[in-house]
Amino acid sequence: MDLALRLGHRCLVVDLGERESAEADLLAVLHRSGQRVRWAGGRLAVVCADSGLRRLFEVTLLSNSLPVYETREEAFAG
Question: How many separate domains does the chain show?
Fold first, then answer.
């Protein structure tokens, strides 16, 4: 992530694939990463195909700071 930012990339996407669950550690890392990317002037988006896991981002309010999308195309179009 740091290298991508140094190379000038400002839209970073984390694809969780078909994952159906997430532990607190993963959510915390994504939250901190989103902060770092925003501080560097970029945007971090999450791709998650599973509707239950997307709902977890909403319930925990992480979706307020990390936009969550169903597909990579949607995330890059953001």
Answer: 1
